[in-house]
Structure formats: structure tokens, C-alpha cells
Design a protein that fits this description.
Length: 356
């Protein structure tokens, strides 16, 4: 189940509907791609246009997050040949045209360029849009990450847009989120990455023999190995402490997203650990998108997090429920049923190690 990322109800935060009552178009519309793993409710309420990655399974193309049915099931157990490709410039161009109905300028936030050609595709589309609409303000911004670490960047920009920020202000909000967003994840089976060419087959084969589960940190500077453990159970236990070693002591509200492939129970356990250890301003469980699972396999779990140093209003819009949310000092517990945690929802605006 996909839940909202945080509490809401603060009057300082203006919904899209209220802003539209004053101005037919806000200053900036935000676009991102489906690898951001944004919960649909958040993307809809913040009016973030999400461009789907193309997934090709046994020669047939699908839009990311479409109902792939049995084909996705086959993909996740390795019985289908699957690849992904960046949306064509024409797909981005159509999204940009739609976005201009919502905003007077456009900020398009892409997955890290080191992962995909999406930024180049978006840049090509921007060239075409400038020919169609001379003088239009449009900017393409590399999130330097993926999954909800990318999603947090889009959310930060969209929040600033709803507050009336111009293109420069939205870009600055996104840049702050890029600097403070992190993704830490563990992969159970490296054979999927080997199949996609991301790691050598020999490495995947050796890791399989040794039952190695790498724990990886992804940030704006790239990816590096934090730890290697023998079991996924140990990896799940290690993820909160890995996050703690990264989180800066600087002020600002801390926001978390727990993500998984086909591991809902483990994700719920991990979310409970995160909630107990960090007491974040917001915490959600949301799945990795199929376009990511194509390359990692279904047994992928991770945490994305960032600090919002601005902390001047709700991180998410009114009407979106919190899966895990407590007041400072509150006593809440994680709910496995998808409901709110016990306790009042609250919010405010915007090396390698030895084997264990």
C-alpha cells in the first residue's frame, strides 16, 4: 500500500486549489520521472507531472507503474527478459506542454545522469519547447540520485512552487534537497544487476556463493559500499545504523521513506525501527518502482531520507494521511495495516567493513 509521506492540516500551507483561486497558473510547474517513486497521492496533490520510464518485457513495451500483471510477476522471478529506457524527447515535450497549463515556467527534475539518459532526453525536449514557446522559462535539473531521494527533491521544489516561488527559488529549494538527500539500500541478489550489465557476472557469481548482501549509500557524489553482510535479516538490522552514520547533526526536520520491492513485512519492521530510533517528522512506506526492480530484482529494501533546514510549513499537502507520524515526545507505534500510527499526526512546513 502506498501511503502519504507526512502529516498535514497547517493553515500556513496553501493547497493547489486555494492558489488557483488567486492565480490561474502558479509561477512554476514541476516535472519528474517515475524512478522518483513518488506516491500517487503526493504527486497529484502537489501537481507534480510524472513521466514514466519505458519497460520492455520480452519485446513488449510498458509504461512504468502500469498494471503489468503476470508479466511483472514473471519479471520479478527472473523468467522474463526485461530492459528499461529513458522516455523519448517527445514524451517529455508532451509533459512540458501539459505543465505549462499549470505554471508559467517549468522545472524538470531527472534521475541522476549516471543512471540514465533521461536528462539528455529532457534537455532535447526543452529545446523543442523553446522553439514552440519563445521566451518560455524551463530548466532541467539532475537530482543526482534516484528513488525517494530523487522524490524528496521534486517535493521540495513543488512545495516552494505552491508557496508562489519563482523558478530560481524552486531551483534553490531543489538544490538544498539534493545536498541533504540520501538513499541507503541492500540488495539480496546481484544476479539481476549482472544481467543488466551494472556489475560483472563474475562478481555476482562470487557474491552468490558467499551469500553477500551489499549495503550501498547513494548520494550526490555517487554510490559507495557501506557494508557487506551475510543475510538480508542482518542487512535490515544494519540499515538504521547506516543511516545514523550519515545523518548530519545540523538542525532541520528529518524525513524518511522506507522502500522495498517484494518485502512488505520486512519494510514494516524496518519502518518501526526507523520510527523508534529517529522520531522523524514524517515517515512512509512506499514501493520501489518496477523500472528499478528490473535491475535489482524484487528483494531490494532501503531507506531514503533528508533534512529540511527550512522547516517552515508542512512537507506534504492537506488530505494526505501519514503512515507513521507522532508529535515530538509522543508515544506511537507503527501500523502494519496501512493506517496512521497511534498518536497525533503532526508536521511543519516547509568504507568498506568486514563481513558480518
Amino acid at each position: 500500500m502506498v501511503d502519504g509521506l507526512g502529516p498535514c492540516g497547517n493553515e500556513v500551507f496553501h493547497s493547489a486549489a486555494r492558489i488557483r483561486s488567486v492565480d490561474a497558473r502558479r509561477p512554476v510547474a514541476v516535472i519528474t520521472d517515475s524512478t522518483a517513486c513518488l506516491p500517487e497521492a503526493i504527486a497529484t496533490e502537489l501537481e507534480i507531472e510524472v513521466v514514466p520510464v519505458t519497460i520492455t518485457i520480452d519485446g513488449k513495451q510498458h509504461a512504468d507503474r502500469d498494471d503489468l500483471g503476470q508479466r511483472l510477476d514473471q519479471l520479478l522471478v527472473g523468467r522474463a527478459r526485461a530492459t528499461t529506457s529513458a522516455p523519448a524527447p517527445g514524451v517529455y515535450l508532451a509533459a512540458m506542454r501539459r505543465s505549462l497549463q499549470q505554471g508559467r515556467s517549468v522545472l524538470c527534475i531527472t534521475v541522476a545522469q549516471r543512471f540514465s539518459a533521461m536528462r539528455q532526453s529532457a534537455e532535447d525536449a526543452a529545446v523543442l519547447l523553446r522553439r514552440e514557446v519563445p521566451g518560455v522559462e524551463i530548466e532541467i535539473l539532475d537530482s543526482q540520485n534516484s528513488a525517494m531521494a530523487q522524490g524528496f527533491v521534486a517535493i521540495a521544489a513543488a512545495r516552494r512552487a505552491l508557496q508562489g516561488g519563482n523558478l530560481e527559488q524552486c531551483r534553490e529549494a531543489a538544490a538544498r534537497a539534493i545536498a541533504s538527500s540520501h538513499l541507503v539500500f541492500a540488495i539480496d541478489d546481484l544476479s539481476y544487476l549482472a544481467r543488466s550489465g551494472r556489475v560483472p557476472h563474475l562478481v555476482a557469481w562470487a557474491a552468490g556463493l558467499l551469500q553477500v548482501k551489499p549495503i550501498v549509500h547513494s548520494h550526490s557524489g555517487g554510490e559507495h559500499l557501506l557494508d557487506r553482510v551475510r543475510t538480508m535479516k542482518r542487512a535490515l538490522e544494519r540499515l538504521p545504523s547506516a543511516a545514523a552514520g550519515i545523518i548530519a547533526s545540523a538542525g532541520g526536520e528529518l524525513h524518511f521513506a522506507v522502500q522495498h520491492g517484494d518485502m512488505p513485512e520486512q519494510a514494516a519492521d524496518l519502518a518501526e525501527s526507523i520510527q523508534a530510533r529517529f522520531r522523524p517528522a514524517s515517515l512512509t512506506i512506499t514501493p520501489f518502482t518496477p523500472a528499478i526492480l528490473v535491475h535489482t530484482g524484487p528483494r531490494l529494501v532501503g531507506v531514503a531520507f533528508y533534512r529540511d533546514a527550512t522547516a517552515v510549513g508542512p512537507v506534504h499537502p492537506p488530505g494526505v494521511p501519514a503512515r507513521f507520524a507522532n508529535p515530538p515526545g509522543g508515544k506511537g507505534r507503527a501500523s502494519r495495516s496501512g493506517g496512521e500510527v497511534e498518536g497525533r499526526a503532526w508536521g511543519s512546513l516547509p568504507s568498506r567493513r568486514g563481513m558480518r
